[in-house]
Amino acid sequence: MEIAIRPKLDRAAVEAIARKHLPGPIEVVGHEEFKDGFFNAAHALEFADGRHVVVKVAPDKAHKLLRYEVDLMATEIECFERGLAAGVPMPALHYGDPEGGVMIIDRLKGVSLPKAHKDIPEAEQIALRREIGALSARFATVTGERFGYPRKSGRTVADSWSESFLAMIDDVLADIAENGSPLPRPAEEIAAVVAAERDLLDEVTRPALVHFDLWDGNIFVEKAEHGWRVEAFIDGERAFYGDPVAEIVSLTFGPEDQQAAAVEGFLGRGMTAGEERRLALYRVYLMLILVAECDVRGFDEEQAAHQRGWSTEALVKNLALLEG
Hints:
Layout: H1 11-21, E1 28-34, E2 41-47, E3 52-57, H2 72-85, E4 93-97, E5 102-106, E6 111-112, H3 113-116, H4 122-136, H5 161-179, H6 187-195, H7 198-201, E7 208-210, E8 219-224, E9 227-233, E10 240-242, H8 248-251, H9 256-267, H10 273-293, H11 301-323
Antiparallel strand pairs: 1-2, 2-3, 3-5, 4-5, 6-8, 7-10, 8-9
């Protein structure tokens, strides 16, 4: 899929980045470009000495981006560094340049969960979801200095979660207004519904690291001796410091029994009423992002209509839950 903001690099350019930043000598014997991402360029290289790496390059800063997407490579590098230190399964980070927008990581041996899904026995799927929940909970053991996105502008950085999250909502609504993206109801009404939950948000007092993009495409699995297992999580560019419950948004896109297993693995219990309500807030936020990005990614008409359709439907549903 062609994405307008994704950098276009040829093999020679990718090899040059690897030679510049990795220990040598480097003889490249294989190259593959991944075209299923929506933001960064990602190219795999195989070296004659057996190493396999992925080179990621951020979009040019001249491109129109959403407000939260500024410094996204810096965010991803921080997510990798802190997540790996906390024992989160992620590819090894060999090089990271936040300013230059480049990172080099190990290439994983497994496959993304959607590609493996048909091969995973139904009896193993619940256990795998529980493992995904438990391993992703390690992100939340990392504590930030303050709430918000770890970017230079500090637009969403705050001492309280309510102040930070409301700034995040304001930013994405500003993106939507600026780009003329359609909403099912006025932005002011949506902002008011979220702002009414300020006290509930302030029940969160520790800024935990949240990956916030753990949909199945960012979860790699592999078949081990005793069944399928999680190999690693990838793509931490949406990470922020906030409520750990926000992680559950992307973990619960599937069937209800698998959703419940992921939550059990993540929390070690069921959700409280307050957590369920906060989860609806975070679903509202993610759906607003998905609506907003349709007008900056350069999607074709069919892709934009599909994403806008299902994300708007989920947005309406979760706003109704909050108001009900």
